Structures are given as C-alpha cells and as structure tokens.
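Final report, closing paragraph on structural work. Over the funding period we assembled a curated collection of sequence-structure pairs, and we close with a single example.
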Amino acid sequence: MTARSTPRSTTLPPGDDDAPLPPARFAYDTRTWQEITHLLVNLPMGIAGFVYAVCTLALGAGLTVTVVGLPLLATGLLGARLLGRSERARARKLLGVRVEEPSPMRMLDGGGFFGRLWSALKDPVGWRAMLYAFIRLPWGVLTFTVTLVGLFVLWPVLPFVVRGLANADRAMVRGLLCPSDELERRIAELETDRGVVVDTAAADLRRIERDLHDGAQARLVALAMGLGLAKEKLLEDPDAAALMVDEAHGEVKLALQELRDLARGIHPAVLTDRGLNAALSSVASRCTVPVRVTAELPARPAAAIEGIAYFTVSELLQNVSKHSGARNASVEVWRADDRLLIQVRDDGRGGARLDGGTGMAGLADRLGAVDGLFVIDSPQGGPTTITAELPWRDRTADNPSGVRRA
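Its predicted structure, as stored:
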C-alpha cells in the first residue's frame, strides 16, 4: 500500500467534473439539455454582468477625482469576485467544468486602509472577473439566439451546434475564471500550510513547557527543599544532613539528565556540531533494532532542513522499535538535484498507514508544510519502506555573511 502526502490545496473534491465528454449525437441526452440550459441562461447573466461592469468602471473612473472614486472601484472589484464565483458554480453544474477557486485576496501587512485599498485595486482575480462580465453580453446574445432558434429550426443538428458553443464557454471559463497560474495556487497552499506550522510550533511549545514543569522544575523544587532541610540539620544532626545532601546530589544528576534529554528533543548538540550523519548514527544507536545508517551528502543543508530530517528519522526509528517487530533496519540520506531524500526501511510486519496512530500523519503534515513529500510503502507482512523528501537549501543561506553565531 502506498500513501503519499503532498501540500494541501484548494482544489475541488474529486468527481466526474472535466471527464471526457461523450460525443455529440442526434439524441438529446442529459448532458445536451444541461448545455442548452447554460446557453439560454447566458443572456440574462450576461446582461446583469455587463450592467454591473459598466456601472462600476464608469462610476469608479469618473469619481477618481473625488475621495470616493477609488474606494468605489475597489468595492466593485470585490463584487466582481462574487460574480466570478457564481459563474464558476454555474459552469460546474451545467458544463461539468472542474474550476478551482482562486486564492483569497492578499492584503498588505500593516498597510491599514490604504494597504487594503491598493490590494483590492490590483487584485487580478477581480479584474479578470470584470473582463469576463464585460464580454459576456455579446456572447450571451449570440448563444441565446442560436440556441432558441435551433430548438425550432435546427432540431436534428442542434446537439452538435450546442456542443461547439458550450466548448467555447468552457474555454472562456477556464481562461478567465480559473486561477491565473501555478503561483496563485501555491499561495493558497502555503497559506493553509502556514496554519499547520503554527499549530505544530504551538504544540511543541506546550510540550516543552509541560516537560519542564512536570520534570526538571519539579525535581529542582524538591532539591531546594531537601537542601533547606539539610541546612537546618547541619549543626544538630550532621549525619542526617550529610545523608540529605547525598540524596540532593542524586537529584541534581537526575535533573541534569532530564534537561539534557529535553535539550536533545529541541535540537541535539551533536546535530549542530557534527552534522546529520553523526546525529542519525546517535539516534540509530538508541533503536532496539540494529540500524545501518548511510548519509552521502556533499555539504550540510540549511539548519532548518537538517533539523526536520533529523526529527523525521528519529520518529520513524521509534516506530520501528515499538511497532514493526523488525530484525534489521536501514536509513539512507542523499541529495538529488535540489531535494534532500531520506529512506527508512525495515523487515518487520508492515501495515504502516498514515491513519495508523503512530504519528505518520503528523510527519506528513510537517513535511508538507515545507513543500516536502512523505511516501509509505508498507504491505501487510512487510517489508516497510518510507521515503521522505525535503527541499534542499544550502547552509550558507541561513548565514550569508559566513559569520559564526554565538
């Protein structure tokens, strides 16, 4: 079974939209009647859109010499977005066109009223929707007339005529009402993924706070109380005081070990000092299954990418220890063009899934948030191969000046 996680998008749910159209024929099937309905409705929708576009542009441009002109034009462009949304819905319903929704309008951070005004005025989605509304009137008159006349005069060949006109409509919708390019779709994806990153960071901070409160902090509080009691008994019962100091010494060692474990969970020192190969070898040595590590990297990637790679392998090897029943495992890391690839294999029982409750979904979300991929190949009975892919960024990009940070 293969599961693949990619960055989330705002595409429509899978369906029959945009499936290859059946060939036009003399019989009037459901698809033909839907196309006829769409072409007849073009006229009233074209009139409404044309009137809206002309009034908005005329009033907005005519009043630009006053304080209300540009805000009126910006408001009209926002309304054009709504017209575009209704036209996309009509095309999906009657023409079966798979039309993605554009990303929300981007506002300038910290720009206030004028920032929002400028964002609305240069919104490409609103302008394309306005252009669509402007040219629909002559097209609506043509399609309405041809279709209506054809219902009484061209009945035998009308399905072929309707198919041609509907295909032109499909092309117009795709050309003007779909997202303009891949960049616009990526903006929507990254806005969604940003929420995942924020939620993950908040969860990590809560985990660190909980570990400090319940672990090292509680132990240090007990240590302070023990040393206070030892101080009180120092003169009247030196032996008891010495015993309490000895116990406090043991508590100090445990507190230090807990702090080291916590620091390793945040960012291990071996990763910072010696790189990914040494850090992964350290993780592999703690796995209950023998692990062979191979890291063939010409240079060290950026610290953020290196950290994600480390924690991905760390969690995968924990799953190998707890759930796989494997006898052997391997970790391979290499660079391919502008990507960092990680592959973790084991000869266990298999059956790993994104929804299996082993943290796989969380890993997939984290990698997807940085434009990475996460692929599981784990048939029942094994073996399991998990491949993670991250974008490669050079380490110098984190510190262009080359100055060593304290």
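The longest strand covers residues 329-336. Residues 284 and 291 are 6 Å apart (CA to CA). We thank the funder for supporting this effort.
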